[in-house]
Amino acid sequence: MFRQSKKRASSRKNFSVSESGDGVSGHLILGSTSASEKKLYDSIYASKLSFYDLPPQGEITLDQFEVWAIDRLKILLEIESCVSRNKNMKEIETIIKPHLQKSMPFNTDNLEAKKKDYYSHFILRLCFCRSQDLREKFVRAETMLFRLRFNMLTSQDQIKFVQSLNLPSLQFISEEEKEKLKVQLYQTISPQLQFQLNLHDESQREAYFKQEKFIKLPFEDVIELVGNRQVFLRGGYAYLPQFQQLNLLASEFSSKLTQDLIITQRNLPQLNEDDRLLPILQHLSSGYTISDFQPDEYSKEAGDITAKSVYSADISQHYPLCVQNLFRGLKENHHLRYNGRQQLSLFLKGIGLSADEAMKFWTDAFTNGGHITVDKFNKDYRYNFRHNYGLEGTRIKYKPWDCRIILSKPRPARGEYHGCPYRDWSVEKLSMDLSHMNLTKTQISAVLDSCQKTEYTIACTQVFEYTHGSASSRPSDDQTHIAHPNLYFERSRLLQNQQPRPAAQESSS
């Protein structure tokens, strides 16, 4: 088998091992970018955005293939989460913009950033073309991403991009035709100028109208705007103001991408013999949630996290529902079965409970009920908890379980408390617990709806936002999708620390 793999590898193009630009040696690169490739991306991204009309050229490494796709997938998953949580366009832009700046900057002249954007889009086409459900999901997320990025462009870049598309439907009317229909056009768009662009003064709206250009196109191209009476209709044509052109562009983008995905699906069998790409594509299209939470960032021992303080209201108020359930089972039974012990032990380790404090915590929790002696605990359980901290056995430093791992475990049987309440609990039990958390009937209904759609991490994120009120809606706060119990805890504590202290506390300190 090794010889066959070696033979297949040797038949492919050789990669050169070189030193990267940052001084780190050993990274596989493919030489300098060809002049034709540079010319391609310069022409494609002359206006910062692209409809991805042409396939990418050149070569990239397998590492780039996977990492670039994962970075884009994280952004698309975050967009999907925002839409499911009923965020408006402005809120979604506030949440997504930092992710774009960090992982996939597009408003730049950097060639590598352009290549990453272009390649990652086509790689995910290969992942999500396999079924109609996946195609629709991908088109929705990519279209929303296109809308967000278009809104982030300057007005000059927007005009430049529209001109680069050369779409027959994007034909502006003459000033003579605008003057002839100015009364009807102004009456149609005046409410939009007031409520969408916040132009409340009549003179402001009139001045804006004088500068605004209008696009004349068949009404069926913007049927959703016709239904909402946002465009003027005459002779089977709709007159679209320029500030509404994004609806047309998004419709064109969505329609074209849908057709391209169908074509990609037809050609997909040609990849079946490539043993390098198929595992990566299957891994990416499996639909699991990628968490940005890095436990190592929070593994430093926190001074206020001790065997006793983990029970305190100051700490326990930040626990997600799954951890609250584990503590409830531990208090009632003075014991947790293996999966429950692992889930809670690694969570506590992630929030800063040291190994010594963990031994105190678990010894007290198991022996206080009188069913387990200290000797029996040391004999049957102590090794397990020390092993989680890398103090026994292979001395691996295990990380806290994220939601993907928790959801991959068997559902809890009678007497077990591990798992995800949003997946494992009945509607009645979950509704009762959520009502005890002071969620309204409307909020509970929204959470249950996400659970019914098997969007359990979105349900947890919704609960976080509902229970943390206006604090979590401030633009400066992290509002990303929560896919890790420790991320829930850290964000909750961070919000508490950001809140101003009462004046009485400040004067006493």
Write the layout of secondary structure elements.
Blueprint: H1 2-11, E1 16-19, E2 25-29, H2 35-44, H3 62-84, H4 89-103, H5 111-128, H6 132-152, H7 155-165, H8 175-180, H9 182-195, H10 202-211, E3 214-218, H11 223-227, E4 232-234, E5 237-241, H12 245-267, H13 277-285, H14 313-316, H15 321-333, H16 338-351, H17 355-367, H18 374-380, H19 382-388, H20 403-408, H21 421-424, H22 427-436, H23 441-452, H24 456-467, H25 485-498, H26 503-508
Antiparallel strand pairs: 1-2, 3-5, 4-5
Assembly state of the chains shown: single chain
Number of helices: 26
Radius of gyration using CA atoms only = 28 Å
Strand fraction equals under 5%
Separation of termini? 70 Å
Mean pLDDT: 83
Reported for the largest beta sheet, the result is:
3 strands, antiparallel
Largest sheet strand order: 3-5-4
Number of strands: 5
Structural class: mainly alpha
Shape: elongated
Contiguous uncertain segments of 5+ residues: 1-32, 296-301, 471-476, 503-509
Give the helix proportion (percent range). 55-70%
Tally the structural domains. Answer: 3
Binding site for [4Fe-4S] cluster: 322, 403, 420, 460
Biased composition (Basic residues): 1-11
Protein name: DNA primase large subunit
Region (Disordered): 1-22
How is this structure best described in words?
Strand 4 and strand 5 form a beta hairpin. The N terminus and C terminus are likely disordered. The strands form two sheets. This protein has a three-stranded antiparallel beta sheet. A two-stranded antiparallel ribbon has the order 1-2. It starts with a helix and ends with a helix. Helix 5 runs antiparallel to helix 6 and helix 6 packs antiparallel against helix 12. It contains 26 helices and five strands. The chain has three domains: 168 residues, Transcription Elongation Factor S-II, Chain A (Up-down Bundle), CATH 1.20.930.80; 77 residues, no CATH class; 209 residues. With 509 residues, the protein is mainly alpha-helical. It is 58% helix and 4% strand.
